[in-house]
Write a structure and sequence with these properties.
Keywords (chains A, B): DNA-binding, Transcription, Transcription regulation
Strand content of chain A: 15-25%
Radius of gyration of chain A: 22 Å
Number of helices of chain A: 10
CATH topology of the largest domain in chain A: D-Maltodextrin-Binding Protein, domain 2
GO molecular function, one term (chains A, B): DNA-binding transcription factor activity
Structural class of chain A: alpha/beta
Oligomer: homodimer
CATH architecture of the largest domain in chain A: 3-Layer(aba) Sandwich
Organism (chains A, B): Streptomyces cellostaticus
Pfam families (chains A, B): HTH_1, LysR_substrate
Family (chains A, B): Belongs to the LysR transcriptional regulatory family.
DNA sequence: ACGGTCGATAAGCGTTGCTGATGGAGTGGG
DNA sequence: CCCACTCCATCAGCAACGCTTATCGACCGT
């Protein structure tokens, strides 16, 4: 169970080819073949079918483990290296688009920060592996409940903001005049499925809402502007934190009253934030 | 970052001795020394101070990673091996004491089951590494919310039971006559700290309650009988699921009305439960 | 039928990683 | 105060591992 063997295993599985994996990893085809053979002998079960190269049932199970495993390994290496390396000057902050509300943006220093917009799942990984110094993740949660984050590594989290959630409707929508909406009122509505830009509907199901949603258009970008435009054009409703929902052209933001969930933003960092990062953490946590 | 190196690193750190670790691992002292040297060179930072042998700051960070890492590695190996191995006849079920309520016990088959009582943290690990075929974990959660489990491996969870939570008071307690109690009413009470037997108070804080608790006696066993006896003797209050709280001699169980949390039990299993385990899963999930 | 590609296997060889021995450093006892 | 003991680091030697090169059988398209 050498990490090297696991790494070649995942590349072989991904490329569905021993030779291609060898090329990508800088090995010989023979070496890759021996790697896989060694793994299969070690685990006592065939992992791949040859010709075509496809994971077996056991191989599929292994694949589910290896990703997080290698991630954690990288995280450990990065975490230790961070303590030895000289503190870098630049500070990179990974965040989801909806986490960057006005309150957060106001707390940023005037210069020296690199913002990197990532998926919710990518942010803990980026912080753990040192790709980013700090992370901002947001999501839906019961009031004062922490978010459920994948624990790829021992990360420290601080809640930095909580605000109400709004439903974004096109201006002419029959419910646009309401002062508040229950999710039950919207059982038959069509929702935009935009996991990287809006708040993911799937979180609502775990956070207490029930029932199945009917997604219409799926939007895989991270631009809030086009997202609100899609809603304005009638392609579906969107769930957004109130501050980012209000004021979008052609839309109306109505507070969500039930289930009682809030949009929560959390700041994430590894063990020992260096100078500039530590200062930013202090400012954000104290401020919020 | 060979797993072997990591394994010797943790043993050295645990035993605070190169030679002792070598003895335990079946290596020479020289080999252990070289392992640590290799790790330190690979990571670019000293991990241990010698004489006395103590983790450095970087070493401490590494230690936090290595435990889960090796656990996941074992889990992956066990998971794959499980698919190749012949299905065992015996079925072992790991559970917390409070998870074994009457409803659960009734669903067990008449014979062929080994029950193993473990800590909440140990159960996911046991299921992941194949030490147990199935796991039953319980805890406090908002109604219909899933529990927060450490994700040591991709495990499947099914909610199997939810029931109200009761506060266990000694029979003569001033609040014993109440029909319901708010946590606020008990702000000044003394609580038994029994993380392995009762419901851990710490979970309440994340589940919505606030404030600090004043633990009195700490009980590290898993026997509910002595736990209720401790409460009856006035050593502190205990939080228990209603069905296990009622009827204990010398105590009164009063429902907890606020915060609105329930005692939730979840069934855990790995990817491919074998015959007997699969049947038990089906029965429990359908029944609940 | 035949070149081309793919993965498995054998042989050769450099490197790794172990053992055993030795040395310097700190420690406790006589 | 010195000696014996323990601890970890280091060195030399050797076996085993892991890579490459080379070759083979199987499959595919032409």
């Amino acid at each position: 169970m050498d990490p090297h063997l696991l790494r070649t295993y995942v590349t072989v599985a991904r490329l569905a080819s021993f030779s291609a994996a060898a090329r990508e990893l800088g090995y010989t085809q023979s070496a890759v073949s021996q790697h896989i053979a060694a793994l299969e002998q070690d685990l006592g079960a065939p992992l791949l079918t040859r010709r075509p190269v496809t994971p077996t049932a056991a191989g599929e199970r292994l694949l589910e483990h290896v990703g997080p495993l290698l991630l954690r390994l990288d995280a450990a290496r990065a975490d230790v290296a961070r303590m030895a390396a000289a503190p870098a000057h630049g500070l990179t902050l990974a965040a989801t688009p909806t986490a960057l509300g006005p309150g957060i943006l106001g707390a940023l220093p005037a210069a020296g920060v690199t913002l990197r917009v990532l998926t919710r799942d990518e942010i803990p990984a980026a912080v753990a592996t040192g790709t980013a110094d700090l992370g901002l993740v947001d999501g839906l949660a019961a009031p004062s409940d922490p978010l459920r984050l994948p624990d790829v590594a021992p990360l420290t989290t601080h809640g930095v903001a909580e605000e109400p959630v709004s439903v974004l409707l096109p201006a002419g929508h029959p419910l646009a005049g309401r002062t508040g909406l229950r999710l039950g009122d919207l059982a038959d509505a069509r929702w935009l499925d935009a996991p990287d830009a809006a708040l993911p509907l799937a979180q609502l199901r775990t956070a207490g809402g029930g029932g199945a949603f009917r997604p219409s258009v799926r939007y895989e970008g991270t631009d809030l502007r086009t997202l609100t435009a899609l809603t304005a054009a009638g392609h579906g409703l969107t769930l957004l934190p109130r501050s980012t929902a209000t004021g979008a052209a052609g839309t109306v933001a109505v507070p969500l009253t039930a289930p009682r969930v809030v949009h929560r933003t959390e700041l994430l960092h590894g063990g020992a934030p260096s100078g500039a990062a530590a200062e930013l953490v202090r400012r954000m946590v104290d401020g919020g």
